[in-house]
Amino acid sequence: MQALRANGRPQGAASSRPSRTPLRVRAAAVYVPPSQRLAANELGALSRLSSIVPDTLLLETPVAPKAATVSSQVLKGVLASSQLGLKPFMTAIENSLKYDKCLSLSGDARSSCQLDKAMANVGAMLAGQVEGRVATELDPRLANDKDALVARAHSLLALYKENGVQPSKLIFRVPATWAGIQAAAELEREGTATQVFHIYSLVQGIAAAQAGVSVIQPNVGRTRDWYNKHPGVIRDPHGPREDSGFASRVDPGLQLVRRLYGYVKARHPKTQIMASGIRSKDDALALAGCDYLVLSARVMADLEGSPTLQGYNSGFSATNSADDEGVPRGLSPDALSDDDEVPALGQVDEEMFKDGLGLAASELLAAGVAGMVADVKTVLPYFSELARSAE
């Protein structure tokens, strides 16, 4: 995600580091006559169906954050911001320059150590401010090196432990490369929760679920954008090609989330789905019921400004479950269409993974990793400038 939250922490996985299906405990429902309900908005109603993860650096959001993310992009945002409320996070980053274990190194090793220390410092602050886990990004320059990714996670775990943060409050983000998924599988076997993102194809999500990953994060907007820029590419094997003269009504981004949701809930219930790249309130409402929705400040404001019928019912008409929830449930394991069903796949190996990516996911994954690497290269000079100013 590039989900960014300056006072919230990510609950990358909503359960506490289980190896079995997480249990959800719900309070017994108490009937309230429609005429006695308070007026509600769509954001409040949606947050009762899905955990909302704010994709923002703002210090206040309309809903209490369920998760927070620490990444190079987050650090860059803090360092480049003049918001007074971010000053404590700036101090946490500056303190990484004084860490003795990093000072004993030189060159790239020192800067990489300081980068991880800064993320652990900021993540530790967020850990005390949100309900769930803090998602920490592993260095994207290692995206195709399984062993290096695992080693980096071990290093970050040690840094967090020094800051008093237990592994149960953490989840590590890795891009959905083959090496990234294999690294996540090893970490999960060790008891460390992982979140795999930059997912643009079914094979990426299914491979990650088979690996026991806690959270998979498909991206709606980027997937949709790619197909919009490539008319003529088949969006749905059962639908028309756009160059046939008939516009396809399939939204590849939303369809990807729906299909992964159905597949994972049926076959890998431990894994949860976090939909990102949500561009509008219509996108968000279409995915109501997904485990996590990453929403921007603009989308949250649109939802917050849209009232529901709750509280306006006279009480004389019968209500259904949609009325009770305030917004229709877009995703449910028991209510998926035939178009969203995916045949069972055997165990995905590396050859199957590469063949199944397709052109869209191959290009988007490469671009996503390249963007993350660019964020790292952009933020590292800040460390050099801070070190010089401290001399």
From TrEMBL:
<dbReference type="GO" id="GO:0005975">
    <property type="term" value="P:carbohydrate metabolic process"/>
</dbReference>
<feature type="region of interest" description="Disordered">
    <location>
        <begin position="311"/>
        <end position="338"/>
    </location>
</feature>
<keyword id="KW-0704">Schiff base</keyword>
<feature type="region of interest" description="Disordered">
    <location>
        <begin position="1"/>
        <end position="21"/>
    </location>
</feature>
<protein>
    <submittedName>
        <fullName>Transaldolase</fullName>
    </submittedName>
</protein>
<feature type="compositionally biased region" description="Polar residues">
    <location>
        <begin position="311"/>
        <end position="321"/>
    </location>
</feature>
<dbReference type="Pfam" id="PF00923">
    <property type="entry name" value="TAL_FSA"/>
</dbReference>
<dbReference type="InterPro" id="IPR013785">
    <property type="entry name" value="Aldolase_TIM"/>
</dbReference>
<dbReference type="InterPro" id="IPR001585">
    <property type="entry name" value="TAL/FSA"/>
</dbReference>
